[in-house]
Amino acid sequence: MAQEQSSITTTTTTVPDLNSPPFSRLFVLCGKQVTVGALEKFFSPYGTVEQCHIVYDQSTGQSKGIGFVKFQKTSQAARALKEADGKHIEPELKPIKVEIASSTIESKPLDCLRLKVKCAAELDADAVKAEFGKISAVNSVQLVPDKKSPGNNVAYLTFESFLDAALAFETAKPEHKAKFAKMKPRKVSLESVQPQEARSFFRPVTRRRSSTLLPPTKLTVLCSSTLTQNQIWRLFDIIPGLMNCSISHDGGSISSATVTYNNTQSAKYAREKLHKFEYPIGERIVVRDGSE
């Protein structure tokens, strides 16, 4: 893939690991008139900004309207995500879109809601929930024996929001060894499905489309073979209207993905904003019309 330079401004000398602490980096769809300075000024009230990055198109020298903001703490990024999404940055009038920046490590959007912590065996789920509930809103607690440390348990806590999970992560005691944990997909037992429900249970799931929408529009995406389908989905889902995403690996260094939107405007916008976008850092994706 062709390489292009991007404009990068850092507020500190270097950021050795953009994914540490976890979920501390945000992806911002902000408009072409927003500068690095404006981006940093806008997000500074939410916490210590370690790095701001605006993506520029080398061929035109124009901003792609995409930025990244790296915070010192996960809770700062979580607060910014909660409060800044939908606002606007001068001189742009359109609302910004803020998401957690995808990393090279496969993760899902809801993974930021779940923590894994170590706890004493004498503590039951209610006790663990009460301890962490002093700071954050805990939805549920699941306890399992700690195989690596007999006499102790591992607790999986699911929180009400990303900010709740971030605050619990940062305030947990050292002995808890708290870390974010992947959300497990819900399992459905076929034995629980009644005969009259069987037909609808196995019916393919489709999205209802308004008659006012244009036919689905496909894009072809050439990307690094290190990327997963989930990562491509998360990137293109920044733009409303995403219907489907599938990726194929042929064993080489480049993979091909097909991305489908439910309207031509979204597909055109995705191509304009994400073509030659650096993802992962150091590599560029190529976005083309599906017919090309």
From TrEMBL:
Superkingdom in the source lineage: Eukaryota
CDD domains for the chain: RRM_SF
Domain RRM: 11-103
Entry annotated with the keyword Protein transport: no
Name of the protein: RRM domain-containing protein
Record key words, sorted: RNA-binding
InterPro entries listed in its UniProt record: Nucleotide-bd_a/b_plait_sf, RBD_domain_sf, RRM_dom, SLIRP/GR-RBP-like
SUPFAM superfamilies, A to Z: RNA-binding domain, RBD
Organism (species): Anopheles quadriannulatus (Mosquito)
A molecular function (GO) term: RNA binding
